[in-house]
Amino acid sequence: MKYLILGAGPSGLTFACRLLKNGCDDFLIIDKEDEAGGLCRSKDVDGSPLDIGGGHFLDVKRQDVLDFLFSYMNEDEWDIFDRDSRIEVNGNIINSPIEANIWQMKLKDQVEYLKAIAIAGCNLDTPMPERFVEWIYWKLGKKIAEDYMIPYNQKMFGKNLDELGTYWLNKLPNVSFEETLISCLERKAYGSQPAHARFYYPKKYGYGEIWKRMGESLKDRLILNTEIKELDLDKREVNGIYSADRIVTTIPWDSIGRISGLSEENLKAIGKLKHTSIVIEYINENMDTKAHWIYYPDPELTYHRKLIRHNFCRGSKGYWTETNRDRFDDKAEDERQYFINEYAYPLNTIGKEEIMEKILKEASSKEVYGLGRWGEWQHYNSDLVVKLSLDLADRLEG
């Protein structure tokens, strides 16, 4: 065939559906699960949809992405929300991001945070550190580092944070002492809005519905329940059965049993890629809050955030927690409802950018393209992977 697409998550589905819209139907898309959607799948739990891969929402900011997705699920089937995300830290429950909402804390805590921000390295023009933990202190100040950023990241990504690079943190704004002081005096937030400042969520379904419909539109071009065990880049062949002029892979490189056609250096480098696994657990009780999700840096709590389902999913109740799998006790003999996601977040470890650059360069020279969160090993949101997938399909088959 002309194209073979590995993985039926948002990246693979978008690429495949764009090929169809561009007039190309000579392709197959293969996935190991029994339904399409990848990390964005939803299941019916307690009479309402629950997103089993964590909290996924459709950001409003990319109109071309919205136009494409609304062609499969009309805009009038979605609710639109102004994001209400919060942080519970030191007895304060404030809006996120923390640096913009210190003014919502108790007065005594505001003073302590302001004092720490005033002497943060970025405000004193000291050289930027290269190690992750030192960088957090330098960028955000001692209080934000120790009360929130370090414990939260340890809960999400593991104890050894200095395995992580700092290249992915440059998007964090400097925490200006002057701006933070003004915001505390005027009692209002400052600075740019975080991702998903406004977002869509389906009125009657979970977020997985849009991807399910896209998968259904592909009909017999979508093959499910098929694990990718072998990938030969030279032959552009998968599992010794399927071959194509071009392969687009959206699955984790280290999940493929055997890869041939890559240099020995790049094969070894794949073994250095790291990720975290999460567990999504449903809790059958409503919370007295209007928040859509809440972050919890407290190390005594196993989970790192809650998604308050009844505040964004119509007619539902309860909430779900998201927990690093290493912190989750799955041996307890009870009737808990939970879902394990082996591949949840790619880790931005030191040297990862260089590793992926080399892998993707060699692979693309053989007409094998890495795409999306796992194909590129980047912590992309679903709206961004749709954009990247549209662009790649248009470039290859526009």
Number of helical regions: 12
Helix content: 25-40%
Ends: how far apart? 18 Å
CATH class of the largest domain, named: Alpha Beta
* Residue runs with pLDDT of under 50 for 5 or more positions: none
Overall body shape: globular
CATH architecture label name of the largest domain: 3-Layer(bba) Sandwich
Q: State the strand order across the main sheet.
A: 8-7-17-18-19-16-20
Output the radius of gyration: 22 Å
Number of strands: 21
Strand portion, in percent? 15-25%
Helical/strand content category: alpha/beta
What does this structure look like?
By secondary structure, this protein is an alpha/beta fold. The protein has two domains: 3-83 and 200-397, FAD/NAD(P)-binding domain (3-Layer(bba) Sandwich), CATH 3.50.50; 85-186, no CATH class. The chain is built from twelve helices and 21 strands. The chain has helices at residues 10-21, 63-70, 107-118, 121-124, 132-140, 142-157, 177-186, 208-217, 264-270, 352-364, 372-375, 382-397; strands spanning 3-6, 27-30, 42-45, 48-51, 58-59, 78-82, 85-89, 92-95, 198-202, 222-223, 230-232, 237-238, 242-243, 246-249, 258-260, 275-283, 293-295, 305-307, 319-324, 337-346, 368-370. It has a seven-stranded mixed β-sheet with strand order 8-7-17-18-19-16-20. A five-stranded parallel β-sheet has the order 10-2-1-14-21. β7 (85-89) and β8 form a beta hairpin. The model has no long low-confidence stretch (mean pLDDT 94).
